[in-house]
Fold this sequence. Notes:
With 290 residues, this protein is of the alpha/beta class. The protein has two domains: 5-76, SRP54, nucleotide-binding domain (Four Helix Bundle (Hemerythrin (Met), subunit A)); 90-288, Rossmann fold, CATH 3.40.50.300. 51% of the residues lie in helices and 14% in strands. Strand 5 (209-216), helix 9 and strand 6 (238-242) form a beta-alpha-beta unit. The protein binds guanosine-5'-diphosphate and magnesium ion. Residues 102-103, 126, 132, 178 line the site of magnesium ion.
Amino acid sequence: MGVFGKMKGRLGGVFAAHRKLGREFYEELEETLILSDVGGALSAEITERLRAECEGEKLKDAEQAKARLRALLTDMLRGERALRLDTSPSVVLCMGVNGAGKTTTAGKLAALLTRRGKKVLLCAADTFRAAAAEQLAVWAERAGAALVRQGEGADPSAVLFDALRAAKARGADVVLADTAGRLQNKQNLMNELSKMSRVISRECPEACRENLLVMDAVTGQNGLAQAAGFSESAALTGIALTKMDGSAKGGVVIAVARAMAVPVKLVGTGEKLDDLREFSPEEFAEDIVS
Length: 290
Ligand SMILES: Nc1nc2c(ncn2[C@@H]2O[C@H](COP(=O)(O)OP(=O)(O)O)[C@@H](O)[C@H]2O)c(=O)[nH]1
Ligand SMILES: [Mg+2]
């Protein structure tokens, strides 16, 4: 079953309960979207757009509205696309607040890319906590990826510099850097991320880069406020939405895609090695409205 099963079940219930389109159907649809964490304003907007389309085409049966809703959601998520990692090396930075799932996502992404035949080098640029590099070392082992690390308290940019040099020397395809969620203060963290970005520009000016903001889906709408700081200071290229298997409700994907200027590219669905998938708007819409 897909990770969006809960939302799918709820939406399926709305279509099953109302065979005919009408006020009751639309009211229940809107409520269901809100319950699925889409957010109030966006739920109203989606419902209104669907109503306008169905009324415009004089549709009567709820069943006919399904295809419209799928198309509408796909359209709203348009622009979502796969990771761009065409150069060797390409560089991926995982950033985000503490506990969002950065280290886990870096590990799972290393595994996903390794399975695709890429030579991956993990970079332990969270030097703020000793345990972080240890945790990443375990993931590197599991994923069959190389690891570059230094001691606790090392300069994260220096670790990244080492990793980029090593990647070039060893012919690695992707450098995947885990970063700290918290330094002494927020400005400090943002400065550190900028510095890392400059190191990449200097060492690998031609490299494809993905700056992924790792966000915990369970925090739902609240996570969006935290994300604001990162989107201001780092040139984000995508979102990795983690913990979709938990109490997260699928609608948060739609809310995040709307609120952020960058696409949702990855979805985390658990704590195991293969619990990460690339996000596809078509598959998502297909999955939740079926
Ligand atoms: N259920 C579930 N747990 C996750 C997922 N991603 C991360 N976690 C867990 O969330 C916790 C924090 O993850 P971690 O990668 O250490 O976060 P970081 O502080 O951002 O590096 C750990 O217990 C992870 O196992 C996910 O997609 N699903
Ligand atoms: Mg971490």
